[in-house]
Amino acid sequence: MNKLDLFTLSLIDGIGDKTLLNILNRNISINQILSYDSSELEKIIKGSRKYKAIDILLNHYDSIQDQADILINDFQNQNILLVSFVCDKYPLLYKRLHNPPIFLYVKGNLDLLNHRKSIAIVGSRECSAIGLKITSSISKYFASKGYNIVSGLATGIDTAAHLATIEEEGFTTAVIPDVYN
Fold it and tell me: Is residue 181 scored above 80 in pLDDT?
């Protein structure tokens, strides 16, 4: 299944990563899915919103695909790389996760997702001055040793980790939630 078809399916309310993995593992094509009737779709789509998803697949797939096209163009215009689970660039370690994300939205150095030495530094948004100082010190130390510092973009500890790493001219990766699903 190509990235556009997979992304289109991901935009359908009621189709989540588990269903998408099920489709990929069973090697079901988009043409097969679109040819299925309700009872066949019920076998591959699970969860409380499956009937909504089935209705969209049967009656509104084209409009969802149009939305997917627009979003993918927006990503390209913003230099955001959409990396799907089936893409060669998808990090191997992510594929080993119990519930891997089907899509990664990458802006910047994709190679950092496969960096051999990474460490996560996360913490409170409402942290103390000493917490910020310790975070800065730890981040700089690991950055100076070639580690990729991974954190969110929240205020507080997360931001302190990124800023200290940048100050040290190290590698840093910000992980943010998927806002498209």
Answer: no
Which burial class, exposed, middle or buried, applies to 1 when counting CB atoms under 10 A from its CB (0-12, 13-18, 19+)?
Answer: buried
Integer Cα distance of 71 and 116 in angstroms? 32
Indicate if the alpha-carbon torsion angle 123, 119, 107, 181 is positive or negative. Answer: negative
In single-letter form, the type of residue at position 171 comes to: F
Which segments of the chain does DSSP mark as H helices, in order?
Answer: 3-10, 17-25, 30-35, 38-44, 50-59, 61-77, 92-95, 129-144, 157-167
Extract the tokens encoding 165. 């790493």
Token pair listed for 161 = 């980790």
Q: How far is CA 70 from the centre of its chain?
A: 18
Residue 179: pLDDT band with limits 50, 70, 90: low
